[in-house]
């Protein structure tokens, strides 16, 4: 018997059983899942555990998803809980690795910054929306992990992780929204210095060096190659304390693109930046009709 194959099949069988049990819970039928005491777990921890279950094959976190109402915005995955299960079934046994480095909560939303080996190495941001302590909606943005660090020797995932200034979350979101609107959407480059402490700016984009000077050099290089990066619309702004995530729609090299930008704010200025950039496929290739955003 192939032990790896057997383990994978066992997980999928258990996943299906969990889905059925969850349906029974919503119908008012008492089951073991309803009595596990998981309601005391934070939504942030539920998300971290769900993502880790891709690696561990632990079926329990699947019960944190509402089986009757789960909207999927990853366009490569079919809608609903069955779509999530199909992706897991397609994974080669014991091939996945999941390391969530940052996790944040903003009201009913939890968003994470994760290093994946999932059909190949990737860096991803995931957003989950909760209703009544169950996950009902998911968005993400994935980018292939580069072979080397950026010009300042930083990876796409390293850097600060501590959440501070929880009392300043609202003003930090306002600051970052202003930056994205003024600079990235409207191109008002004369306002750039308003958002930074001089050239002290830590950059994790794989092609850009630290500082405003690094950003300027990268933009010049793109212009010389005739490549444009344009932001057209902001869809979501989420934050906790000193961290703010902005989800935007635009284009890169004339291709429809989703931009996820995570900023760390320090002393009222932007101090650090991570991002993922993902091309939006043509609608004919979508596995659900919910859209990327």
Explain this structure.
This protein has 293 residues and is an alpha+beta fold. It has 2 domains: 3-144, Roll (Nuclear Transport Factor 2, Chain: A), CATH 3.10.450.50; 166-284, Nuclear Transport Factor 2, Chain: A. It is built from 5 helices and 10 strands, in the order ααβαββββαβαββββ. It has helices at 3-26, 43-56, 80-90, 169-185, 211-224; strands spanning 71-72, 97-106, 109-117, 121-131, 134-144, 202-203, 229-240, 243-252, 255-266, 269-279. The chain has a 5-stranded mixed sheet, covered by helices on one side. It has a 5-stranded mixed sheet with strand order 6-10-9-8-7, covered by helices on one side. The longest helix has 24 residues, at 3-26. Residues 1-37 have low confidence and may be disordered. It comes from Neptuniibacter pectenicola.
